[in-house]
């Protein structure tokens, strides 16, 4: 596919990510830091760190919530960490879900936390797919330059 | 690029910032922001205890940015211990929890200011201006 068509596809993907609220202004800031600062690969680095962090934290949360006695302080600490990572990358939907998750944690609502984890996981998987598509398109564009 | 370079040139002196942060994603973002602002020499500590050690060992910083939740020693305790050393360097607390109670806890620990995460170029410029470092 020609570079122009790939670029068009990338722009459409990014527009849909912003329009659907998957990402917010912070993600735009990352793109600007990359473009203005002449640091190619910066967005990819942050996105990869976020995806690795989120994957690990979601696994830890699932394990904690399976325990007979749930340590809600630990759960809260992990959700806080995920909220921070998602805010840094501009993952708006994941961040909002984490905020609701923390409230359930503070209420020590185990069933609510299990449901919140399922929502966080879905939001994250959806975003990760989009990020992966974005990075693939960027690589393809790069390869044609 | 030109903006960052001119800001750094206007400042004339490089400022030394200690970032106290355990998570790589936040450190990567902070590095990029410092680079964009220009004229900043960034030092990093992975937890509060490491930050206290660096300051105690004579690290002369113009600004300390401290996360709250970290392993080994959190940002509140690190701030208290740095102040107990008699260090008056501006300390700005950082956290993604930014309710009044979160801000108060940092200020009571001895921080001069608090900024909600994520750090941005605008927030960093505001901090630098507030402490006459811009």
UniProtKB/TrEMBL annotation, chain A:
Family matches, as SUPFAM superfamilies: Histidine-containing phosphotransfer domain, HPT domain
A GO biological-process term: positive regulation of cytokinin-activated signaling pathway
Tree of life domain: Eukaryota
The HPt domain, residue ranges: 39-138
InterPro entries reported in the protein's UniProt record: AHP1-5/YPD1, HPT_dom_sf, Sig_transdc_His_kin_Hpt_dom
Record's comment describing the protein's domains: Histidine-containing phosphotransfer domain (HPt) contains an active histidine that mediates the phosphotransfer.
Cell compartment(s), UniProt: Cytoplasm, Cytosol; Nucleus
GO MF term (any one): histidine phosphotransfer kinase activity
A Pfam family matched in the record: Hpt
GO cellular component terms, semicolon-separated: cytoplasm; cytosol; nucleus
Organism listed in the record: Setaria italica
Protein name: Histidine-containing phosphotransfer protein
Residues bearing the modification Phosphohistidine: 80
Keyword Metal-binding found: no
Function in brief: Functions as a two-component phosphorelay mediators between cytokinin sensor histidine kinases and response regulators (B-type ARRs). Plays an important role in propagating cytokinin signal transduction through the multistep His-to-Asp phosphorelay. Functions as a positive regulator of the cytokinin signaling pathway. May play a regulatory role in salt and drought tolerance during plant development.
Record carries keyword Nucleus: yes
PROSITE patterns: HPT (PS50894)
Keywords: Cytokinin signaling pathway, Cytoplasm, Nucleus, Phosphoprotein, Sensory transduction, Two-component regulatory system
From TrEMBL, chain B:
Family matches, as SUPFAM superfamilies: CheY-like
Alphabetical UniProt keywords: Phosphoprotein
4-aspartylphosphate modification, residue list: 67
Residue ranges of domain Response regulatory in the record: 16-132
CDD domains the UniProt entry points to: REC_hyHK_CKI1_RcsC-like
SMART domains found in the cross-reference section: REC (SM00448)
GO BP annotations listed: phosphorelay signal transduction system
InterPro entries the UniProt entry points to: CheY-like_superfamily, Sig_transdc_resp-reg_receiver, ST_Response_Regulator
Pfam family, one: Response_reg
PROSITE patterns on file: RESPONSE_REGULATORY
PANTHER family for the chain: TWO-COMPONENT RESPONSE REGULATOR, TWO-COMPONENT RESPONSE REGULATOR ARR22
Protein's name in the database: Response regulatory domain-containing protein
Organism of this sequence: Setaria italica (Foxtail millet)
């Amino acid at each position: 596919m020609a570079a122009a068509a790939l670029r068009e596809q990338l722009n459409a993907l990014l527009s849909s990510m912003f329009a659907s609220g998957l990402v917010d202004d912070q993600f735009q800031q990352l793109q600007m830091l990359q473009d203005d600062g002449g640091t190619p690969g910066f967005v990819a680095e942050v996105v990869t760190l976020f995806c690795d962090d989120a994957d690990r934290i979601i696994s830890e949360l699932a394990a904690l919530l399976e325990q007979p006695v749930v340590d809600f302080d630990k759960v809260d600490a992990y959700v806080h960490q995920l909220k921070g990572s998602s805010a840094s990358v501009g993952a708006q939907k994941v961040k909002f879900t984490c905020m609701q998750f923390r409230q359930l944690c503070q209420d020590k609502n185990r069933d609510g936390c299990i449901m919140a984890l399922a929502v966080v996981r879905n939001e994250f998987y959806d975003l990760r797919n989009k990020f992966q598509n974005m990075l693939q398109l960027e690589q393809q564009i790069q390869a044609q330059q | 690029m030109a903006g960052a370079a001119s800001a750094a040139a206007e400042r004339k002196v490089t400022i030394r910032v200690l970032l106290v942060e355990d998570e790589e994603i936040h450190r990567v973002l902070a590095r990029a922001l410092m680079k964009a602002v220009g004229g900043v020499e960034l030092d990093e500590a992975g937890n509060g205890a490491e930050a206290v050690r660096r300051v105690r060992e004579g690290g002369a910083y113009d600004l300390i940015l401290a996360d709250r939740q970290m392993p080994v020693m959190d940002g509140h305790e690190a701030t208290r211990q740095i102040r107990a050393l008699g260090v008056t360097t501006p300390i700005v607390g950082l956290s993604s929890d930014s309710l009044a109670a979160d801000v108060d806890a940092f200020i009571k620990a001895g921080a001069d200011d608090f900024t909600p995460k994520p750090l941005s170029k605008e927030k960093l410029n505001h901090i630098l201006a507030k402490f006459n470092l811009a």
